[in-house]
Amino acid sequence: MGVAVTAVQSIGILHFHSQPELKRRGCFFTSRIRGRTLVFRPYYYQKYDENTASIFTPIIITSSAGTTSATTATSGAGSVLEVRDIKEQYKKWQWKGQYSINYFVNSSDSDSDLTQQSQSNPPLLLVHGFGASIPHWRRNIKPLSQNHIVYAIDLLGFGASDKPPGFSYTMETWAQLILDFLNEVIQKPTVLIGNSVGSLACVIAASDSNQTLVRGVVLLNCSGGMNNKAIVDDWRIKLLLPLLWLIDFLLKQRGIASFIFERVKRRESLRNILLSVYGNKESVDEELVEIIMEPANDPGALEAFVSIVTGPPGPNPVQLMPRILLPVLVLWGDEDPFTPLDGPVGKYFSSLPSKQSNVSLFVLKGVGHCPHDDKPDSVHEKLIPWLANLPTS
């Protein structure tokens, strides 16, 4: 049962709540109304202010016979896969005989544990965006697993995959990794589902005229390049381009790069970055911050960060998309500050359905750069029927 946020206005003074069973949810404030304890979780850790009352999410706590229970207004909690459960199913694949690539598959080694429907439908490969990893899909794996075998991969340089010293990261490298993974591991025509730079890697892979194992492509706020230097025809980037080149120069100085990276990967810094790119601030929880922060402490993470930010942006999706004749679903959050709808990349993808009959587009309201984690229900509402209607061959 939920409580209208407008009710917060009349609560008055709120008190910090530190019950052990609620600590895992973060910072709480409580107040008594009509015999009930209302617990409020702020998106930001700040003092209560009536002008910012709308940022508190109410949770009703009812007590009976000394026990306490909590119910939130959030739906679908049972569809979220625990990060520890994901990690328990991690597998390793040797790419090119020298790089250990971390991946996940929702099935056991035996096909007998799979439903007949999931065996007949195409498998899915989830490809994360910049700074993310397999657990970023924790809200999606279960719903998608109802009818499909679901794979997810940590791209080289991210997550629990290798971060080799001195490696020069490129979009083409990640695209080739995806194609090799399809050929060597999945070995079946597969639907690629990517977010941000992961989307662009999927586009590059699907546009390869030699590939035979891509069944369809789903793009979640596709990036225009490995970094912002790709979008030179956006007036906002033109204004910032001198600054971007300066940042590149500074990041190539080891001491400066280490100083910057140490501050970027701090918990509070990551939380603020995530809050700026998520439309649904409720999704920016401590678990998400940990998912992004943990791999950033691995050896080689700094080098990967510098190489990606300062490296070549890679192929432009505008040149690649006309080569793709497979079914394509484009989902775009309308509150994305990285690749906004009114920017050149957003405008291009918005225009695609009128140019290519194989492309479907849905704009997701109130959603930021990572739709699958920001508002997963909005993504599943469009994605699952699209998957069900894919041509059989």
Automatic annotation (TrEMBL):
UniProt keyword terms in alphabetical order: Hydrolase
GO cellular component: chloroplast
Pfam family, one: Abhydrolase_1
MF GO annotations: chlorophyllase activity
Protein name per Swiss-Prot or TrEMBL: Alpha/beta hydrolase
Lineage: Eukaryota, Viridiplantae, Streptophyta, Embryophyta, Tracheophyta
One example of a Gene Ontology biological process annotation: chlorophyll metabolic process
Domain AB hydrolase-1 intervals: 122-376
Top-level taxon in the UniProt lineage: Eukaryota
